[in-house]
Amino acid sequence: MLALPVAAAAVGPMAALAAAVLALTLRQLFAADRRRRQRLAHDDAVVEAVAAMTSELSVGAHPAAACREAARECTEESVQRVLHEMSSRAALGGDVAAGIRRRRVDDVTWERIAVAWETGGRYGVPIATLLAAVRSDLSARQRFAERSRSALAGARATATVLACLPLLGIALGQAIGAQPLRIILGSSGIGGIILVIGTTFTCAGLLWAAAITRGAAGGFS
User: Fold this and answer.
1) From 133-137, 158-162, 180-184, the region with the lowest mean pLDDT
2) pTM of the model
3) Which of 5, 94, 139, 199 has the most CB atoms around its CB within 10 Å?
């Protein structure tokens, strides 16, 4: 909280405000990237768990034992918790699908597993067959999302380059003696206003580009 007043005293209020806008934008972008990576790790763990359950069920294991073995092989803690609850409910003859939905209410990936389990219990279809279909569907969606992210790598790089062009312009201006830094960091209010407006538009462009690429890449939903 003290950083902004200190920066304002050192370089001026407008430059400090521009720096704060840039810092908040970068923080949001890094947080979004971290959440994306966590989501990818979670989705990978779910696919592996479904594969493990399918393998166990296909050789005649009890559903509770299949869930327990999948939990033992899983390294993602959130997925382990759901699998343990599934195992407990299956061992007691409870509603496994309801347990999944209680744990992961807003997760479309787990909802597909819950529907498969519910369908198997209601119509007598082998759960191993249904989970194998779910696994194929999730794997296909995962491959599609990965291809989409790879295809959009160029667009993300272009957005980053475009965002850095103003810095290049300032550097060129300094090199030819135009002194743009003196204008935007000087005592004149116009330069500071231009700096804040330019930084805000640049940050808005970065956030907009990130939102577009995230929406285009999609995911399991």
Assistant:
1) 180-184
2) 0.74
3) 199
